[in-house]
Amino acid sequence: MKFAQVIGHNDVKKRLIHSAKENRVSHALLFLGPEGTGGLPMAVAFAQYLVCENPGDDDSCGTCSACIKMEKYVHPDVSFSFPVATKDKIKEPKSVDFIEQFRKAILAEPYLNYMSWMDAADIENKQGIISVHESADIMHRLNLKAVEAPYKIVIIWLPEKMNHPAANKLLKILEEPPEKTLFFLVSENYEELLSTVVSRTQLVKVSRISESDMLTELTTNHGVDKSTARHLHHKSNGSFSEALQLLDRAEERTVFQQDFILWMRACYQLNVKVINEFALKLNERSRDGQKEFLIDCLDNIRECLLINYANRSLVRIDGEELTTLARLAPLIHINNADEFVEEFNKATFHIDRNANFKILFSDLSFTVNRLLRMER
Questions:
Q1: Which of 4, 16, 313, 331 has the most CB atoms less than 10 A away?
Q2: Given the DSSP bridges, would you call strands 28-32 and 181-187 parallel, antiparallel or unpaired?
Q3: How far apart are CA 102 and CA 108, in angstroms?
Q4: At the fourth CATH level, which superfamily is domain 3-207?
Q5: 312 — phi, psi (to 5°)?
């Protein structure tokens, strides 16, 4: 991937290229930014620039042998580590066991997100992690000398999924790697990163994609009209992967919106029959799918608060969706907002810990009933 294929962030690109030209590339970079904003594409583009045989002033050449291999994610001196899980006969999973699926997934969508990767790897019913077995494999890779490029580069995607034993095993090599060895860590959640890992890296901040850059990408390369592109940027909050999902799931989103309103209505009326039907329906989803539903619900609660208290320009929805939520908005206010967030986050936490979803969802529904009936 060339820098030109990374949406926006021209200032970041210039700083990275300058560090390469000055031969001052840090041995461990932390590309930090929200999901879908370009951390992974930026890390891949910089790796390609560093291994390119004929780098230009502002990008890799794209035509040399090294660039062609990078475009296919098969360069022998650039390796990837990412969250995986046990599957079939793979009891001690490592990235190398899933590398073909990863290549296929990232070629299809360079702005790959965690849930899409779990689905592509067919392990969506489990939590992907970077384990101590992966750390051992990274160290094994680094024992081998570079084959073609001046550097050996390890790109660790989502290091916040790294457990403590895995991190501890890598700390020394992160701090003092072999000569001409680079680590690019690509994270979406600073709070979940281990401080011992962060302290050994140099930060490269990847912010949300600007409206102008998003509009250019969507209208030029995805055939989206400017009005729709502007709406997608606003609703995705500068996340390109989210914008693409919204584009692909426009019809599905309408169904979700209807389900959310029906559930809220059932909670308000304490309609146990409808609540149980929702619980059974959602229980058929994977854990990540259940979490996604609750996260989407929280997004709608946020929109209700913005409708009530903020400038309407901050509201990320419009049309029928706005009209529908505006009817619910008066029931979500400053006196119950914090508890809504707390209860939904608590439910998401317990899903991660294999709680019985039907019981959890029923309990949450009773809590929502109490919150919706709370006085303003």
A1: 16
A2: parallel
A3: 10
A4: P-loop containing nucleotide triphosphate hydrolases (3.40.50.300)
A5: -60, -20
pTM for this one? 0.73
Question: For the chain (length 376 residues), average pLDDT per consecutive 10?
Answer: 96 97 95 96 98 96 97 96 90 94 96 92 85 94 87 96 93 91 95 91 96 94 84 85 82 73 94 94 86 86 84 62 81 93 94 91 96 91
Alpha carbons 371 and 376: distance in angstroms, whole number: 10
Domain coordinates in residue numbering, the chain: 3-207, 249-372
Distance of CA 260 to the CA centre of its chain: 23
HSE-CB at 235 with a 13 A cutoff on CA atoms is 22
310 vs 327: CA distance, rounded Å = 16
| Contact call for residues 82 and 158 (beta carbons, < 8 A) | yes
Q: What contacts 82, CB < 8 A, 6 or more positions away?
A: 95, 98, 102, 117, 128, 130, 156, 157, 158
Q: How many CA atoms lie within 13 A of 143 on its CB side?
A: 6
